[in-house]
Batch of 3 targets.
Target 1
Amino acid sequence: MKKILAMLLVAMLALSCVAALAEGELVGVSMPTKDLQRWNQDGAYMEEKLKEAGYEVELQFASNDVPTQLNVVVIAAIEGSSLGTALDKAAEKGVKVIAYDRLLMDNGNVDYYATFDNYKVGTVQGTYIKDQLDLDNAEGPFVMEITAGDPGDNNARYFYQGAMDVLKPFIDDGKIVVTSGQTEFDQVATPTWKTDVAQKRAEDILTANYANGEQIDAWLCSNDSTALGVTNALEANYGGENWPIITGQDCDIANTKNMIAGKQSMSVFKDTRTLAAQVVKMVGQILSGEEVDVNDEETYDNNVKVVPSFLCDPVFADANNYKEILIDSGYYTEDDLK
């Protein structure tokens, strides 16, 4: 089996890749938590593909706790600006770092970034709402609320901005009304992406603004864990005539079941198998001294440098195409979604 002086360094709920460690000739994969479905899947698939490539692999989870993560051999970053010391030490050892799916911030020792086109994720969500409500042609007004992601996650602002760049013109001209008045990112953010946090905020919005059965036409949610919280709140507290359009991201099993049941309208699918395969390829390119694949050298500024990035394309799934997107591709089985 090949051995490499390398490690994967996880960035902000994600993993990363490094090219040399002082101890242990292996690839280390550190995922942030077992609490969210996608990180279990990402970790398992990354481990599988690295082993297939001939590398020894150590997979760890860091329980979503920044101090714990900073004290483990494989660094897993939940809050992307907390890794300065660890990144500096990695650089001293000649370690190359690839941030995986969430950008490591405020440090120049980040060599590459592998992720999905996060701004496009938001535009897909915003365009879905625009098309479903026929905003270009319908008279309106339509009522919408917004639930965004974790302020500590660099990606959350890209998701939010991508969607708002589609929808804000309709808010500005009054065709979309946000009854709560909460439209700025800091107002609609959900710390740590937690379902219960999103649910509590949604419950507060419903109590304050929709207690008499007022209609909500759409609820823009940046990902599936927040969409699940909003859906839970609506099921318990919403009396409007029509169920609102609810967006999401990740195609988690619970949310895909909700799509099938008509409780969630869509979810942006980011096939992490594609992303993991790309990172495995980049690991090999780094270790062999080849040019590393990137397709974006302008977008992702971590406050110290623009990090060369490889962006994979997201697609959306809904009740009409989930079988093609999720089952036919082998991501889920029919039994998974029963």
Target 2
Amino acid sequence: MLKKDTYDVVIIGSGPGGLAAAVAAKKAGAEDVLVIERDMELGGILLQCIHNGFGTEIFKEDLPGPSYAQRYIDESIELGVETLLDTIVLEVTPGRKLFVSSKQHGFFEINARALVLAMGCRERTRAMIQIPGMRPAGVYTAGTAQRFVNIEGKMPGEKVVILGSGDIGMIMARRLTFEGAKVERVLEILPFLSGLNRNYVQCLQDFDIPLLFKHTVKFIHGKNRVEAVETVAVDDKWNFIPGSEEIIPCDTLLLSVGLIPENELSRQAGVELDPLTGGPYVDESRQTNVPGIFAAGNVVHVYDLADWVTLAGYEAGKGAAKFAMALRASEEAHIPVLAGNNVHHVVPQTINKRSLEDEEIELQFRVRTPVEDRVMIEVHDGKNQIARKSARYARPGEMNTITLKPKNFADVEKASSITVDVNPR
């Protein structure tokens, strides 16, 4: 099982934002840092991005995605960051309690002094853009096709049309061409690229893959498998232009039509979302409106470069560590007062170490069941007795007290908690 149930900083997601947050939190002084990842390995989406283009801003090198991720994986391990892989976070509360499930550990709870949301984003699907037609096999998001080819070693198809000029779509046009597929067309409903210009040059122009602006897919043909797509030109208001239809035979349609920040857990935690970005409102330290909950990377808004995600992760990690250390200091300044044998509750429930000066501290409590004919009331730290007194009886209907005197304060200050017991003499 886990080493502990409370961590200074817990990070959901191990992509470039999550790993950077973990490294930054450790370097900023957080003692316990935990990364939770739903996949079997650390790295997030970087593991399937085997193309170059990562690290140009931070390392001044041109790295493939897995190599970029490995640098942060190695650094996080060296710093002592703990990880939970193949693990799903089911719910997050505003108080930073996580309800978590995994095959190895089952269902359990984790408390975070500070939490970093780094779940990334997801792709828009066919249902979201409502392309008419049957529901044949062969319609994929570009990221799904990327995983098929680069991780699973499977080809999604042989004759491909790509809708959208997002970066993953253009990169997959080149990748599928490398593997022997024929990319018939890339269509973009906008009059300009939605991805990076460098990907247009390196992935489409260099491989003579045609790109049509102000075009989209009007209909998908095929019952069991995609057989063709009907394309159409659009005007400035995205209305179809009659007579511009074209049937393109193909067996695969890839969708690269935008990304959506992954914020279901954020909503559960009471995080306020910006309707323009789909991600949380954050301050300069990447803290959301919920104290102690931070967010970084594509979960906040969609970035063009992983390097920018990493830099945002650094800020979130540093902010989370600062918040956690302040909270830890506050917790350590208070000594819990616990109800022990036959005690229903005690007030005060905690003692501030700064109040351990010259004045006495009275503990008030009620018992669960009556004890007649003399009782012994004892305060202890689990091993050592701190104070005691006897009483004629103890009854649930009457409040009882025991006073901690200045001579007891040295023992109280050394305790991680103190407990009040009521026993028959």
Target 3
Amino acid sequence: MPSTSQSTPGRLLRRRQASIGRTDPGVFLDRFEGESRGFWGRGNRWVAWAGTLHEFTIPDSAPEDRIEGRATPELPRDRRFVELRRQLRALLGEWAGTADGHGSPRVFGGFSFLAAPQSASSWEGFPAARFVLPRVLLRGGPDGCELWVQRLVAADEVDDEGVEGELDRLVRELDGIPVPPRVLVPRASEVLTERNGEEREAWAAAVSAVLEAVRVGELEKAVLARIQDLELDRAPAVGDLIRFLRHENPRAHVFLFDFAPGGTLFGAAPEVLAELRGGRLHATAVAGSAARGDDDESDRRQADSLLASKKDRAEHRMTVDEMRDVLTDRVTGLQVADDPRILPLARIQHLESPIEGAVREGEDVLTLVAALHPTPAVCGRPREAALRLIRAREPFARGWYAGPVGWFDLRGEGDFVPALRVGVGYGRRWRLFAGAGIVEGSDPELEWEETALKFEPALRALRAGAAAP
């Protein structure tokens, strides 16, 4: 069981690690009920975390130009990304890596969609930014799992026994626990808030407003969101919820943030905003959607129709072009696919274009996220015109919906996606969010149906999580 420690101004971060057999992240998450916990992963590579060594936050009430306690109107409007990096370095110093090759400690969390305050009861516990340095991490991969325990101690304190004791105890509890033999089947016994009357009319009016703005040349696209509230028979089990979400969405980035105090946010994002490893950026532009077919033949027809759609190709090109423009001066050898490919998900399929390159000196994952967010895929184009229309037409707070969520470390590496296909809530009461890009040629009824498909991942996961006796 190798150990590492890193010196900080007056603090030491002690870490201990052990390899264990395959285990289920849902079992791990349920073990830490009542503490902050979370999940991040795609396919067979994932990390589940629990406990809080330190929390980094920027409250909603912090004015944008006074985050560091002084007026700085000449600096960029959104200072959250710079401030989070400063907070982490103030705690851990300039971490340069570790002898065991596992790299810098990671913090997990996210940012709200808008930098400006948006107080709302549904987003309690999700301020302008919130990240956690966990106490325990379980990392999963194709060859098994690694369990990590971390402690922050005073520079003159020796706490190896405490770290070793918790690691040994958790290894005994988790090693060899079999993956649950089945994924719980969703059931439709929850109460959904009826939103097919006045809200449907408001949706049609909002879409018409976007189309008029497009017609007169004020913007090319705006992404409108809508919500769905529901009350379950019982509170969902987090372990079952994340197990089902992973099972149904193997090609999406599945995430969960269950903050204490605060609510729970989970989702399955189809696109990558910025993933940075070893100086290489990977991102994807995802825009343009169609339903999945009922069988292989109809599924291929739907995919072919999506690839041939002028409307969807034009919408996709907006996202590709803006991401290329933003990254050109930040990335060398930028590679963007000439033509989109199909990204098939459980209930819907999208047009997807991968983007890759080597980042220039001085760039890290947070500078890239700050530059890219919000992309036309979650906001619109031009950005400021789309934001004004979103603020005017959406009668609810987006909170973290469509904001960047993920992890970063002191070396500047990290992984972020927009918080899409999400549910937020606590206990039996939840709110779901889904959006659609409105461009020339959009039809209000078809866009309404598209958002209904996008509610499905979170809705089905909640049903499955609440199905356990």
